[in-house]
């Protein structure tokens, strides 16, 4: 995949988050409250969330598949 920002080739991989409580959630603003937000990745049995995506090492853009 090419970067939508600079056009260079992106590196494929995963973003990992650690959360036993609800996994990864989508927020439109920074807040310490996570209840009621849209869940986009559930944690596995060890509490890790993995989201597949691509990142540009040049301009630091990350595109995540959810």
List the helices and strands and how they pair.
Blueprint: E1 11-18, E2 24-26, E3 38-41, E4 48-55, E5 62-64
Antiparallel strand pairs: 1-4, 2-3, 4-5
What does this protein look like?
The protein has a three-stranded antiparallel sheet with strand order 1-4-5, with no helix packed on it. Strands 2-3 form a two-stranded antiparallel ribbon. The relative contact order is 0.35. The protein is globular, with a radius of gyration of 14 Å. The two termini are 16 Å apart. The protein contains no helices and five strands. A hairpin with a 6-residue loop joins strand 4 and strand 5. The chain has one domain. It is mainly β and 66 residues long.
Key features of this structure:
mainly beta, three-stranded antiparallel sheet, 66 residues, two-stranded antiparallel ribbon, single chain, 0% helix, 39% strand
What is the rounded Rg?
14 Å
Strand segment tally: 5
**Order of strands in the sheet with most strands:** 1-4-5
Biggest sheet statistics: 3 strands, antiparallel
**Helix percentage range:** under 10%
Name the overall outline.
Answer: globular
β-strand amount: 35-45%
Low-confidence stretches: none
Which structural class is indicated by helix and strand composition? Answer: mainly beta
Total domains:
1
N-to-C order of helices and strands: EEEEE
CA distance, first residue to last residue: 16 Å
Average pLDDT for all residues: 86
Helices, by number, come to 0
């Amino acid at each position: 995949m090419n970067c939508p920002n600079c056009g260079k080739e992106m590196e494929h991989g995963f973003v990992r988050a650690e959360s036993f409580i609800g996994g990864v959630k989508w927020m439109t603003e920074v807040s310490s409250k996570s209840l009621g937000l849209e869940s986009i990745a559930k944690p596995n049995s060890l509490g890790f969330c993995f989201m597949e995506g691509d990142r540009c090492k040049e301009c630091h853009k990350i595109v995540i598949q959810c």
